[in-house]
Amino acid sequence: MREIQNSPIGVFDSGVGGLTVLRELYRQLPQESILYFADTARLPYGDRSAREILEFVREILAWMTQQRVKMVIMACNTSSALAVEAVRQEFDLPILGVILPGAKAAVKQGQRIGVISTPATAKSQAYRQAIQEINPNAQVWQVGCPPFVPLIEQNRLWDVHTKEVAREYLTPLLAHNIDTLVYGCTHYRHLEPVIKTIIPTTVKLVDPASYVVQAAKKELELMGLSKTAPALPTRFAVSGCSSTFSQLSKQWLGYCPSVESVSLPMGFTPTVAWEQVEMLE
User: Fold this and answer.
1) 46 annotated as belonging to a binding site for a ligand
2) Is 127 annotated as a binding residue?
3) Known catalytic membership, residue 145
4) CA 115 distance to own-chain centroid
5) Is 78 annotated as a binding residue?
6) Is 76 a catalytic residue?
7) Annotated active-site residue in 76, 145, 241, 256
8) Residue 234 annotated as binding?
9) pLDDT in tens, the chain (281 residues)
10) Model pTM?
C-alpha cells in the first residue's frame, strides 16, 4: 500500500493547457509526485473525431499504467467529454475528468452559463448535460473556439489578432447576458488576461482545473492513497518536440523543465465496442 501511495499522479493533455491543472496540484497537493504528459504530436484534439480521441486516450493511459501511476487526471475537456466513461471500464485505476467538477462549480455561480470549448467538446454537449442534470433550470450556451488552442500553443497570447478572435467568439455568449463563463478547455485559462478585457466584471469565471484537483484530493483520501513521502520532481513527457514544450512552458512554470520525448505504444486492444464510440460522433 505504501508503494502505491507514493506513486505519482498522471496528468495528461494535448499540450500546455493541462499546466493549469498541474499548478493547482502544486497548490492543493504539494506532497504529491506528478507525471505530466502532453500529446503535442497530435495537437490539437478539438477537431478530432470521437474515435480518434478514444484511441489516443487509450494509448496514453496504457503508457501511464506502465509508469505505475496511482491515478490519472484527464486535464483535457475534449478527452473528458468523449472518452472518460469508456476508459474507466477498461483501466483499473481512478480516472478523473474535468467536466463534472467544472459543471458543479458553474451551477454554484449562476444560472445563465456560457461555455467556451473546443469544437469537439461543444458538439458533445457534455457541459450542457452535466450542468442541467445538476440544475435543470440552468440555461447553457456553448461556443466552439477552434483558433484558441493553436494561438496559445504558438505563444501568441498578446497578439492583437488574438484579442480580435476572442472577442468574435465571446460576443455571442455576451448577447445572451451570461452571468458565468466556464473555461471548457484547460488551455483557455491562459487567455484569461485577454478575456477579462472583453467580458463585464459581473461575469464569474469558472476554471475546472481547480475543482478537478479538489475532487482528486477527496478521492485519494477516501481510497487511502494520499502520499506520505516528500514529492519527487515532476516528470514531463511529450509525444512531439521536447524543447518546444519546455520553452513554451517557462512562462507558466517559471522555469524550462526537463522534458523527455515518448513514442506512445501502438496496438492497444480495446475492450469496448467501436459502436459505443460511434454513438458519440
Assistant:
1) yes
2) no
3) no
4) 14
5) yes
6) yes
7) 76
8) no
9) 678 899 999 999 999 999 999 999 999 999 999 999 999 999 999 989 999 999 999 999 999 999 999 999 999 999 999 999 999 999 999 999 999 999 999 999 999 999 999 999 999 999 999 999 999 999 999 999 999 999 999 999 999 999 999 999 999 999 999 999 999 999 999 999 999 999 999 999 999 999 999 999 999 999 999 998 899 999 999 999 999 999 999 999 999 999 999 998 644 443 333 333 333 34
10) 0.90
Domains with residue ranges and CATH for the chain: 2-97+210-278 (3.40.50.1860), 100-208 (3.40.50.1860)
Q: Of 145, 185, 241, 256, which residue is the catalytic one?
A: 185
Is 187 assigned a ligand-binding role in the annotation?
Answer: yes
Using the 8-state DSSP alphabet, how is residue 49 labeled? Answer: -
SS (H, E, C) 96-154: EECHHHHHHHHHHHCCEEEEEECHHHHHHCHHHHHHHHHCCCCEEEEEECCCHHHHHHC
